[in-house]
Design brief:
This protein is of the alpha/beta class. 33% of the residues lie in helices and 25% in strands. A hairpin with a 2-residue loop joins strand 1 (3-14) and strand 2 (17-28). Keywords: ATP-binding, Nucleotide-binding.
Length: 253
């Protein structure tokens, strides 16, 4: 399968603090890749680097054969940030139609995107009057309206009820089957099972890059939560025990 995204030896610093440590991965076309890890692990930084809005210290990110951030990629990448990226003083419908117009798309295509994220009943409401979960869905409608070839979704299902989460994931799968490449960050492990591949990140380093089944097999468990914990603990340095003739209190700290 051809690759849509290639990350090679990516290093990102925030001030003097390293955030990503020479991270490398390849994301296949037409796949749904889950990006998982604790808060502060570097997930959002990696996503920003793929979109092309992150300053990098070294390494390369290639998207659809072009350097990340290339002007020709702008209409081929959709990006949903954690914070809603829509205009609070416009209605849901007006927001979607505005972003659709940027892609040269019709009002009916914008309205279809609003329906797809479950906001048809709220299409005429001002975004500023919506709940947090509804605002996230309004942002999602604007991100998917152009049917981008690459879609980067940072925590797209936070604050959504289980039924809507299931419907959104069905939409993500449909988009992948139609040829789009999706990268979806999440803290919810049951969502990880819906992905084709998983990237598990901890403290800026990649500790797993495989299918959900292979990640669980490598950890010797059928539970992804436990698999993640097992893989993390394997990365932690062992604490030395007392040598022969030495008490525990004498072991160097």
């Amino acid at each position: 399968m051809a690759s849509a995204i290639e990350v090679a030896d990516l290093v990102v610093h925030r001030g003097a603090r390293p955030v990503l440590h020479g991270l490398s991965c390849t994301i296949p076309e037409g796949s749904v890749t889950g990006l998982l890890g604790p808060s502060g692990s570097g997930k959002t930084t990696l996503m920003r680097a793929i979109v092309g809005v992150q300053v990098v210290k070294s390494g390369t990110v290639t998207v659809l054969g072009r350097p990340a951030g290339d002007a020709q990629l702008r209409k081929q990448i959709g990006y949903l940030t954690q914070a809603p990226s829509v205009y609070a003083d416009l209605t849901v419908r007006e927001n979607a139609r505005y972003f659709a117009a940027l892609y040269g798309l019709s009002a009916s295509e914008a309205d279809a995107a609003v329906r797809d994220v479950g906001l048809a009943a709220a299409a005429g409401q001002l975004v500023g009057n919506l709940s947090g979960g509804q605002r996230s869905r309004a942002s999602l409608a604007c991100a998917v309206v152009g049917r981008p070839k690459v879609l980067i979704l940072d925590e797209p299902t936070v604050g959504q009820d289980p039924v809507l989460r299931d419907e959104l994931w069905a939409q993500f799968r449909d988009m992948a089957q139609a040829g789009s490449t999706l990268v979806v960050s999440s803290h919810v492990m049951d969502e990880a099972n819906r992905c084709d591949r998983l990237l598990l990140i901890r403290e800026g380093a990649l500790i797993a890059d495989d299918t959900p089944a292979a990640v669980k097999a490598a950890a010797g468990t059928d539970d992804l939560d436990q698999a993640f914990l097992t893989l993390i603990r394997r990365q932690e340095p062992a604490v030395p025990g007392p040598r022969a003739g030495e008490s525990a209190s004498e072991v160097p700290a």
